[in-house]
Amino acid sequence: MSVRYVGKDIPRNDGFDKVTGRGVFTFDVHLPRMLHGKILRSPYAHAKVLSIDTSAAEALPGVRAVCTFENTTAKLWNGAAPMFITPLPHKPVLDQTIFTGEPKYIGDEVAGVAADTEEIAAQAVKLIRVEWQQLPAVYDPLEAVKPDAPQVQPRFANPEYNNICGGPVILTFGGDPDEAFKHCDEVVEYRVKLPRVKQAQMETHGAVASYCPDGRLDVISTTQAPYPTKMILAEALDLPVSKVTVRNPPYVGGGFGVRIGLSGKAEILAAALSMKCGRPVKLIYTREEDFTCSDSRHGGYLECRLGARKDGAFVALDTRAWLNTGAYATFGTDLVGVCGACGTAGAYVIPNFRYTGWPVYTNQMTAGAMRGFGSPQGNAVVEPAIELMAQRLGMDSIELRKKNSTREDTRNWFPFPPGSCGTNECLDRAAAAIQWNEKHGRAAQQTGPVRRGVGISAGTHVSNAAPFCVDYNTVLLRIERDGTLFVNSAIPEIGPGSTTACLQVASDLIGVPFQNAVMKFGDTDAAAFDIGSHATRTLYTVSYVMADAAKELRRDIFTWVGRHLDLDPGSLELDDGIITSGGKPVSTLAEMASAAHLEGKQFMASSCKVPPNCLPFYAQAAEVEVDLETGMVKVLKVAAAHDVGRAVNPRLCKGQIEGGVLQGVGYAVREEMTYVEGKGFYNKGFHSYMLPTADDRPEIESILVENPDPSGVFGIIGIGECGVNPTLAAIGNAVEDATGVRFHEFPLTPGRVLAGLKAAGKV
Amino acid sequence: MAQLHTTINGEPITAEVDPALSLAEFLREKMYLTGTKIGCGKGECGACTVILDGKAVTSCIIPVLRAEGACVETIEGLERGGRLHPLQEEFVNKGAVQCGFCTPGMIMSSKALLDANPAPSKAEIREALGGNVCRCTGYVNIEQAVEAAADRMRRGEG
Amino acid sequence: MQYVSASSSGEAVELLTRAGGKGVIMAGGTDLMVEFKEGKICPECFIDVTKAADMAGISADGERLVIGGAATLTQIARSPLVKRYFPSLAQGCGCVGSLQIRNSATLAGNVVSAQPAGDGAMALAPLDPVFTVCSAGGEAELTMGEMYAGFAKSRVDHSRQLVKRISIPLPQKGEAAAFYRLELRKSLSLPMLNCAAMVHCEGKTVTWARIAMAPVGVGPVRAAAAEAYLKGRELTEAVMARTGELALENANPRSNPLRGSREYRLEALPVIIRRTLEACRAQLS
Q: What is the Cα–Cα distance from A78 to A235, expressed in whole angstroms?
């Protein structure tokens, strides 16, 4: 077996569809008799519906269904994947219903209408008359945990605390940090306030739900987790799981975590309306609904203490986080855990480790999964502390990181070995690319209003969610009559090119040509369980399961071919579709598959397995320019070095890094969901949400470091989320390098920076 | 309702239209040209970019009747008999495509640029794409794809 | 709803009259279409002036630069005439929205939409433009200051009037103009602050200056105290810095959740005014 396709920049196989406009997205789906849905959302952050009158809406010509909290099930669920991937003995928090009579944030769903056109549905929503009683609300996590704060979810919050959702999450490893700090030569502290930011994927949430009165529900949607969505819908709507189908059509306009489970609530809202009238209902979120009524990244407060010996060896790390999970749980508890694990526990050797995370309910839009899933938040508090420690010890911060970085034999909080550890190489290569030695620590030599500085940050994540979540895959491999490969898997393709890279891996694993290999994906009817595209997992875990199935498939082929050609199956080899025996070509897979078919035999194999896991390590360095007079921070360059184990498709792999980095740049300097009390989030569209545009981006240099991981097929390590994780901290460190001021609140908008520079007496 | 006479991707079209429609709605809902996406409906993301008489416009805020007597180019018009436009090929080759939702608008903005300016500078490429939001790629490969396509087109390809 | 295309400004005025106040002039339509889709305006008729022959194009007649009411921001930003006489206007017009928006939107629309910090309108403000406004009653000429009736409110009633052209006196010897935009992002965003200035010097001494700033009030706000101070002085570092400080006397910015608090805007305004004047000085030397 030779490696022909892994490692090559093969153009993605959905490219033709996507550059010609042929590719179908949920937004493009149109079905016979299809209606359009619109939702009535709460204008209040916390209120009780005293009465609701839908008669005028129902009387409007063209209206086919009106659903409210009064005529739909009040069964409880959690719209995110944890509802069905939380391993025992933990229990997911089930705190959502389809509609509610007690809305808990501005935008909460109270009623919905399906009508012949979107315009009629929108008009009908306006005709629904509601009598509201406003209730007290709380918006800030530190306010919400106070004993006298209004209760956001009294039925579901942890009764021992105020407004704590499923937590607190406490992680410990090694000795007691409190005791250890007493014996440290140096202890530094850092605290930071982080914003909520939004995934802002290009295709808004959407679903077309078709309920057939004989009991089947077929949903086409923008979910990035078709199987969990199928399970949630079946449970919430009291349908047999077998009768619910969820599929992507097959393309999804981005995800970045916002739809690991229901996409917003599009599927269940459309399904409720469809079940009411027995016709397909299409519900597409407006951009404003997407921005203000679906999960964001968690913002909040973090603080940490880091202790070290004089020689730089880390002794203890203690971190506390209060993250704003909003009105409903979704991923709140899980994410706060990952913030501690990936964000604070994995990258360095820390003999005395503790993390305490508080997922806090507030009367704001829910926060949930977004690329990095807590890692960026943890990184944002630990990496500045390391920088402060380096200053205190008079060491170069890169040397300090390298001295403490996780090694292959490190045991830390994670219940599995870290795998291959490329942190130090990543640090060196990122530093070289940013010219660290020439540029770092030059604040004192600079004059004039514009200053430059460089900063660095390292970190880790995971390559899937096992064993913390129920995370497994199923694939079916089959050889068609002409020897071509067909792979069935329910994974979605939300953009990274997973379906191309998986086929590169499969072709090499089996020994067939890539050219005509095909994957059926994004559909619960395509294959058995798949958790979805999340946790940096798809390529790593699907490859793992495919490796098992490929072994079985080759055995199936060799057994039959051996018998058919009267050869020892043990002597057979398959490479790029050519079958050899003892090194001599004896046939082709095409010929054998065809012959087998005529005897009633198709070569196939399937596998269903829980993957191992490994930690992906990385370092990013940033160069910034700060205008001391206006507070404007401009990011000039980010050099991102990631240990990817083995790049299956280097171009696609770099694309993941570059996209993540730019999201991280936005997070660090521009992006922020700003809450205006009484009105909700100010950021209702791209015009009021400052994600980077093509003419406002830094140079991005993506560097692939390839230390093959022992657990990964062909040595691969996860990459998907990692690009975004260390960027904010690297930029914050660079701004300090430029200005001498350490900031404690992000993003570094001009107003915040100028105020900080003034407070520090720099201007 | 009003009559619209326009040319879409080289084909003359006559249609009865509601003047309240945007050009994007008309293309998608009446012409079934769903390659043109709508990401915001307010001209703030560029997903709906089409070329109207040689200029890139956000078709979600262009009144349909502005296409009267005009030439409209959409993403569907670029491929001819299975042959891709150099921009389309380079978007695939250079990894400028990820989720694909911004891609049609991105390619149409790029085509309008290259049609008028065969040798754009980096700054001109960035200006042309500044109104097309992409959240997947970091724009790095998109810029490279446009440069590569421009090179090829200058050499007489496409 | 009807949509008609006018072939001249005269025809557009006739169509407005016929619509009896229920028609609305549409040039680029980039703002109007959004308002229309959101149900904020519901005219019975849109009167498209983009094909009105006497409202097209950009020309210079020896005394003034004339910009048609239907000239797009892209046409202005790329016009050799505009770049030659008023590079700051080309720059400001090139900052609005995105290229796609500028390919449709007009400078006249940027003024009539009356957003306080429209970049095109701001760059235009210190150039002493005259707006030729047509209505059933005939043509009238309005100055920049007369175009704004209130916050986001134009004196031009688009259901009865239209801007046929904008005329700008050609620059004379000793004049220079500059535009500055303090921005969170280049494209698809309004500025945090913007500022435009035009100064005339004899030798090194400023004989007059016009400084406009936004968003610090209704439309482009003139920094009257700063302008008065500058007259008769040389553009030294100290004078330009002091001019920036004095601009605060006429500035009353609001806080915006995204584009800067009142406090920040008051801090940054003197800086960008100083930088704008520095740009003027650089052109003069």
A: 10
Flag if A750 and C184 touch (Cβ within 8 Å).
yes
Do residues B72 and B90 share a domain? no
| Domain extent at residue B112 | 86-154
| Domain end residue (candidates: B51, B77, B103) | B77
Chain B partners within 8 Å of C15 (Cβ): none
Q: State the first-to-last Cα distance of chain B, in angstroms, to the nearest integer.
A: 39
How much is the ipTM here? 0.98
Question: Can you give the residue range of the structural domain that contains C115?
Answer: 2-49+58-169
A663 touches chain B (CB under 8 A): yes
DSSP assignments along A561-615, one per residue: HHHHHT--GGGEEEETTEEEETTEEEEEHHHHHHHHHHTT---EEEEEE------
**Closest Cα to residue A282, out of A150, A423, A117?**
A117
Residues of chain A contacting B88 with CB distance shorter than 8 Å: 19-20
Nearest beta carbon to residue B65 from set C3, C100, C104: C3
Q: Which residues of A touch C42 (CB under 8 A)?
A: none
Nearest of A391, A321, A411 to residue A360 by alpha carbon: A321
Report yes or no: A18 at the B interface, CB cutoff 8 Å. Answer: yes
Nearest neighbour of B19 by CB, restricted to C3, C29, C100:
C3
Could you report the per-residue pLDDT of B56-66, keeping only the tens digit for each? Answer: 999 999 999 99
* Structural domains of chain A, ranges and CATH numbers in brackets: 15-22+472-609 (3.30.365.10), 31-135+200-292 (3.90.1170.50), 139-197+298-396 (3.30.365.10), 415-469+612-763 (3.30.365.10)
Q: Are residues C234 and C269 in the same domain?
A: yes
pLDDT of residue C50: 97
pLDDT in tens, A587-638: 999 999 999 999 999 999 999 999 999 999 999 999 999 999 999 999 999 9
- Contact residues, chain C, for B63 at CB < 8 Å: 3, 26, 29, 33, 46, 48
Give the per-residue pLDDT at A167: 84
- Say whether B101 and A203 touch across the interface (CB within 8 A): yes
Q: What is the pTM assigned to this prediction?
A: 0.98
Q: Tell me the C-alpha distance between A593 and A574, whole Å.
A: 13
The pLDDT of residue A1 is above 80: no
